Amino acid sequence: MCGISGYIGEKNNSIKIVFNILKKLEYRGYDSSGIATIFNKKILIKKSIGKLVNLKKIILKHQIGSNISIGHIRWATHGKPSRNNAHPHTDATKNIAIVHNGVIENYIELKKKYCINDEEIVSDTDTEIIVHIIKKNYKNDLFSAVRNVLREVKGSYAFALICKNEPDRIICAVNESPLVIGVGDKENFIASDVSAILKYTKKIVFLKNGDVAEIKKNNIIIRDIENNIKNMQIKTIKDENCSYIRKNKYKHFMLKEIFEQPYVIKNILKDVICLNKNKNYENEFKFFKNIIKNISYIYIIGCGSSYHSGLIAKLLFENFANIRTEVDIASEFRYRNPILNENTLVIVISQSGETADTLAALRFAKNKKCKTFAICNVMNSSLSREADKTIFTKCGQEIGVASTKAFIGQLVILYLLVFELSNKKGIINNHEFKKIIVELLDVPKKIFKILKNTKSIINIAEKIKGKKNFLYLGRNLNYPIALEGALKLKEISYIHAEGYAAGEMKHGPIALVDKSMIVVFIAIKKSKVYKKIISNIEEIKARNGTIVLITNEKNIEIKNKSDYVIYIPKINDYLSPIISIVPLQLLAYYIGVFKKCDIDHPRNLAKSVTVE
Ligand code: M6R
Fold first, then answer.
1. Contact at 8 Å (CB) between 582 and 590?
2. pLDDT digits 0-9 by tens, 492-517
3. Residue located nearest, by CA, to atom 12 of ligand 1
4. Does residue 395 have an active-site annotation?
5. Is 2 a catalytic site residue?
6. Quick one: which atom of ligand 1 is closest to the CA of 608?
7. What residues have CB less than 8 Å from 378, skipping those under 6 apart?
8. Could you identify the atom of ligand 1 that is nearest to the CA of residue 302?
9. What band does 380 get if pLDDT is binned at 50, 70 and 90?
10. Counted domains in the chain
11. Among 117, 245, 255, 380, which residue's CB has the most CB atoms within a 10 Å radius?
12. Residue 370 placed within a domain
């Protein structure tokens, strides 16, 4: 995680520019932040703990004119959030300042090797050691000192450094952590992602693993660690929506994004079935149908909510397209020995396209010669640049840390891929395919209906907000929805919640059930597991658990088996996950609001998890 920013150029408000870039990167972490600049031949550091507003107060107090600065927003990995652990870090003589995103795995060995004394070190971070070692290697050339030290550094990093003796350049280095250079006119920028600097320039250099860059106001040179000059490709970024996103009438981005979900579905469907004469997704679907010809099985990889959408897709691919499908959490997949070859299609799912584990899983799959396909929300993200092909969910920027509309977008794309494939294989005919599309087109209306009636969900949220433990139970397609519902509650309200397969509950978790346990069930009337889930509800009722039931409207037969009911519109079972998740998102949201939690910036989390 962590975000890096930097500016060098003619303007002497570099601190403001670097701060503004950090603002765009706040989704990557918000434990602390800091900026280093060169002023009067000295390195000056301004730091603050907590969100960026705190740093803003400090930099406004000291208006410093400087044309070179680097900045950082932190998500703590090594060392708790504190002023000392906040970046930038400097060597003891304050000659060099560094900001870092990633994890240095061998910093303890390096500390020993270079005999760095504990007295020299002010933080608990893995980063600070690196700046001390660079200082030891420094012989009036920061560029070569950095390259020398990097030969010994193990781990993931995007670094940016400045040196008070060399106020005309920023040095950057990259390995397994993203960093881009924005190329301007007599000025250059750096940032952890493209969208953060698009306000300043659309000309972008994507740094690659092993790149060490020297960035001056009029010039950029990229070398490898061995000092060989590398080719530099400047890409012009188009089609990026740079507009400032507002909450409008909504109290939080999360609520706004929940309410945007019907439009997300409409937009995807409109483009896919060419209602607006745009053949926006044509290439992606063609690509998918072409590569799948020689594919013997699919692996779907993701983290968090993206993993949950993959779990649903597995059931759909196997059921409707008759293709063996495995799903894995990215951080597990890459350290196992999965059976992969050129006939495997690896589908990586990520809202941000920057999740370190998902990116590493993609690279791992590519090394094994698998075909790769990404489902991603953020254009120009690392994942979308590296996968063989990417299909974008086009949900618009998702700001709330808890994923909502991006999850729905992923689901809709996955449903379409499954049914396209099923149709192509002749498992469903054209008529059936069209019928499915018509049913999908009806989903936004059903979600609008849920969103119009949040009162009952608010009432339930108020009644159960004080409870300490929640179980979310579902079966088949709604088992991943149980996992996703529990994840939303954990993130937003800090209440302990577990998602479980309802049938598995009697193998252990049922021991937890008493009247203080809230058990949320998803019971879809026409589903083949409906009767089974009714039995599971009875089992919980018999043990005095408090039941919150999500079921279809007019399903009164099980009303008296539950303490609270949330009705959702009637829907065919196979599509039910797209709407059953909505009341669970709202329930988590309102419980979080009643508990006065920081909804859009939950503690300890970041929107994009860019460390392993
Ligand atoms: O950007 P990604 O989809 O790769 O992110 C994956 C997870 O970090 C993400 O889904 C996370 O679990 C969310 N906070 C869930 O709401």
1. no
2. 999 999 999 999 999 999 999 999 99
3. 304
4. no
5. yes
6. 1
7. 193, 195, 351, 352, 353, 354, 384, 397
8. 4
9. confident
10. 3
11. 255
12. yes
Alpha carbons 197 and 179: distance in angstroms, whole number: 11
Residue span of the structural domain in which 189 resides: 3-236
Q: What's the rounded Cα separation, in Å, for the pair 468 and 175?
A: 42
> Residue 204's pLDDT band (boundaries 50, 70, 90)?
very high
Same domain, 491 and 549: yes
- How far, in Å, from the CA of 609 to the mean position of ligand 1? 8
If asked whether residues 479 and 587 sit together in one domain, one would say yes
| CATH number for the domain harbouring residue 61 | 3.60.20.10
Task: For residues 142 and 286, state if they share a domain.
Answer: no
DSSP letter, residue 600 = T
Alpha carbon nearest to ligand 1 atom 4, residue: 350
CATH number at residue 510: 3.40.50.10490
The confidence score (pLDDT) of residue 279 equals: 61
Asked, for residue 34, whether it belongs to a domain, the answer is yes
Q: Is there a single domain that holds both residue 203 and residue 332?
A: no
Query: Does 530 reside within a domain?
Result: yes
**292 and 430 share a domain?**
yes
Q: Which atom belonging to ligand 1 lies closest to the Cα atom of 378?
A: 1
Q: Measured between alpha carbons, how far is residue 27 from residues 21, 331, 424 in Å?
A: 12, 21, 40
Q: CA 309 to CA 358: how far, in whole Å?
A: 14
Which residue of the set 16, 24, 111, 607 is catalytic? 607
Same domain, yes or no, for 210 and 313? no
DSSP 165-228: TEEEEEEEEEEBS--EEEE-SSEEEEESSGGGTTTT-SEEEE--TT-EEEE-SS-EEEE-TT--
The answer to the question of residue 514 being in a domain is yes
CA-nearest residue for atom 9, ligand 1, is 304
Same domain, 292 and 413: yes
CA 612 to chain centre: 13
Is the model's pLDDT at 197 over the cut of 50?
A: yes
Q: Whole-prediction pTM value?
A: 0.84
284 lines ligand 1 (CB under 6 A): no
The mean pLDDT value for 68-94 works out to 91
Would you tell me how many other CB atoms lie within 10 Å of the CB of residue 605? 18
Instruction: Tell me: do 492 and 416 sit in the same domain.
Output: no
Query: C-alpha 413: how far from its chain's center?
Result: 18
Q: State the Cα–Cα distance between residues 359 and 397, nearest whole angstrom.
A: 20
Cβ–ligand 1 distance for 3 under 6 Å, the answer: no
266: DSSP letter? H
Domain boundary among 236, 264, 287: 236
403 lines ligand 1 (CB under 6 A): yes
Helices (H), 425-454: 430-452
